[in-house]
Predict the 3D structure of the following.
Amino acid sequence: MPDDVKDDLLVAHGKKPLRVRDLKWLVEGMTEALRGYIEKSLSGPFAELRKRIGALETRQAIRYRGIWDQAEHYDRGDFCTDKGSLFHCNQPSTRQRPGEGSDWTLAVKRGRDGRDAGR
């Protein structure tokens, strides 16, 4: 449709006619107002859910540090293996050997050797 026809297209609106460009402005304004209303309406019920999701997304993944090494410092949340068992570090920082104090929690206990162990 040619621009001059679009500009002349009128939409009845009481005594004052609206041009298409005026109608576009009106629709955009209503869209913004509805967007704000919807966001405000949903912010309350979903605020707690958003907070929980944020905490989960920032949570650090499991850190396996390999076989325990006395020269290393281990931080809370680290996992390491010692004597075939897997341990979780409970302290902010430790050099204590897993299984010899409260700095570590046994996560997976060593199993028995299989029939073909030692081959």
Remarks:
- The two ends are 85 Å apart (CA to CA).
- The longest helix spans residues 20-58.
